[in-house]
Design brief:
Length: 263
């Protein structure tokens, strides 16, 4: 072995021994943290029950948290009776006064038992996960009667409308209450307004995962390919008054929790 090789071998052995020593010196405490401390939250008794830190968007009493989408100076005019909210198709979409970024949301919806129509014209509404303008501008999670109603699969209940098919169809028959539990990660944008990270969504429909961290291609686009054309920050949450001729559906028990990293 020449001198150079000897030195290399020796240094390799020393480095190796050093690694072994570093391993031995590591303690389990090194990877255990005591801060930040997660905020204390009192959970609901059921998933429908709002946790203590939730914003109740509709608690059965009134629409004080909502405005008309096309004129945000106007209070929402959908009908509230017997603890439930029913779409008024003549007045247009409604959205929250407050804006949200990343959040967890619970919402219950019911298509009336006497529903008529077929395809997209049977109990159509939508939950816009972020409203980015008037009308249907935003990212739509479809609401539709798909218990026994055929339509394009990326337009079914539980689909991110015209972007992805739900992973399952756990639809209940019209007349029964159904639930959406959503985890929404808002898109982020670069200084030049191009998209930095796409929006992401996980959805449980009647407790069944139908979207699992799906990355959205952009806001919902009825014709053509979706893409991010508009940078935006925190946005309202919107409900759709679809123009189909079928009987209007109802909502109840809507709450949202902002998802913030512990400080
Ligand atoms: Mg819709």
């Amino acid at each position: 072995m020449n001198l150079k090789k000897t030195i290399l071998t020796a240094s390799f052995l020393i480095t190796g021994l050093g690694m072994v020593n570093a391993q031995q010196a590591a303690k389990h405490e090194d990877t255990e943290f005591y801060t930040p401390v997660p905020a204390k939250v009192t959970p609901g008794r059921t998933v429908a029950d709002a946790p203590s830190d939730a914003v109740r968007l509709f608690d059965g009493k009134d629409l004080s948290q909502w405005v008309m989408t096309d004129d945000r100076t106007k209070p929402a005019t959908w009908k509230v009776a017997n603890g439930i909210l029913t779409v008024d198709k003549t007045s247009g979409n409604i959205e929250t006064k407050q804006s949200f970024n990343n959040y967890q949301l619970h919402l219950e919806w019911r298509i009336p038992a006497n529903i008529t129509g077929e395809g997209q014209a049977r109990g159509n509404s939508g939950l816009f996960l972020a409203s980015i303008g008037k009308g249907d501008a935003g990212y739509e999670l479809q609401i539709l009667d798909n218990y026994k109603n055929k339509t394009y699969t990326n337009g079914m209940a539980g689909s991110v409308y015209k972007q992805t098919t739900p992973l399952a169809n756990p639809s209940r028959p019209a007349g029964e209450w159904q639930t959406y539990d959503v985890i929404w990660t808002a898109p982020t944008f670069n200084d030049d307004k191009t998209v930095k990270t796409p929006a992401k969504v996980t959805v449980l429909f009647n407790g069944v995962v139908v979207q699992n961290g799906f990355e959205l291609k952009g806001p919902t686009q009825y014709v053509g390919q979706p893409s991010y054309k508009q940078a935006h920050g925190p946005s309202p949450i919107k409900l759709q008054a679809h123009g189909d001729k079928s009987e209007p559906l109802s909502f109840r028990n809507i709450w949202v929790r902002e998802i913030n990293e512990p400080k």
